[in-house]
Design goal:
Elements lengths: L1 E6 L3 E7 L2 E6 L2 E6 L4 E7 L18 H5 L1 E6 L3 E7 L2 E6 L2 E6 L5 E7 L21 E6 L3 E7 L2 E6 L2 E6 L5 E7 L3 E11 L5 E12 L2 H5 L4 H17 L4 H6 L1 H13 L2 H4 L1 E12 L2 H43 L1 H17 L12 H15 L1
Antiparallel strand pairs: 1-4, 2-3, 2-5, 6-9, 7-8, 7-10, 11-14, 12-13, 12-15, 16-17, 17-18
Length: 370
Amino acid sequence: MFKKITIQMGQRGLLLKKGTYVKMLQPGTYRLTTFGGTHIIVMDTAMPFEIVGKDLQLFLHDDKLKQELDIVHVLDHEYVLHYEDERFSGLLKAGTYAYWNVLKQHRFVHIDIRHPELPAQVDPVILPKLTGYYQMLEVAEHEAGVLYYNHVMQRELKPGKYYFWRGPVAVSLQKVDLRQQQLDMTGQEMMTEDKVTLRLNFVCQYKVEAPLLVLAIKSFEEQIYIQLQLILREYIGTLKLDDLLKMKQEIAAFVMSRLHEKEREYGIRFVSAGVKDIILPGDIKDILNTVLLAEKKAQANTITRREETASTRSLLNTAKLMDENETLYRLKELEFLEKICEKIGSISLTGGSNLLEQLNFLLGSKGAEK
């Protein structure tokens, strides 16, 4: 008994006898006896060369078969990008793969994943087809990134998107904000030279300029805070309370000059600094209020006495002029008489003389007395 098997164009046959590969069969018609344990496996050359239950190495002793196969070996530390007719087909992990080169042209790109960053030869267009095999790290416009492999610092990353293979190397990213930042010191207790304890609110602004150096400092902001605290204590401890209140603006200038000396050490640039508030103890505040009130009262008394003196001096000068000039004296009398008349509501006449005669008599008598 014979069995007819037809192998079409675009197909190849694999002849096996008692489960052992014998040779490859080209397209055509073949007759096999049903006895003897021979059979043919017909394969589509558009599909990968893969026999279920059979290792690829069992077929590679056939040189004719090998000429029609593209074989790729993928090592444990590799990914291989598989292209068919220059179109991306898939990603291959560790193993051995074979593809028919009869109908399609195959190209393989070997990637060493011990170097995690995706090489430039990987087109970003294929990334959606590689989901699960890579990770994306992003650095925003206002940030700087620092790249780590297995917790070992590698380099600084500028703003942008970066792609890394998931593999034996753990990839991580630390970000540093490059925008202007503010450090507030609130309610810090300090003592002046004359042993007055006060509370100080201080603020300073800074910008990071060396991200690698900043990340190399543990508890970076805490260290900046302590440095600022020490500088303020040093300065305020040399001033008495009265001097401190007078030199409030000079504190910022001193602190900035000292902070500039530390910029290289911390990898930052200090932009500005200043005192927000000086909070005094309640008893000291009461004393200062009392002193201020006394000073203002004394100033008021001085002004009052100065005005009184000036007024008296003016009256004295006027009296001297009136003594020396009778006409001026008469004009002054008329001025006061006018003021008096402005306040008179009604006039009563006595005797037989009229008002004008009585006024003339009054003024005449004054002049006679003088």
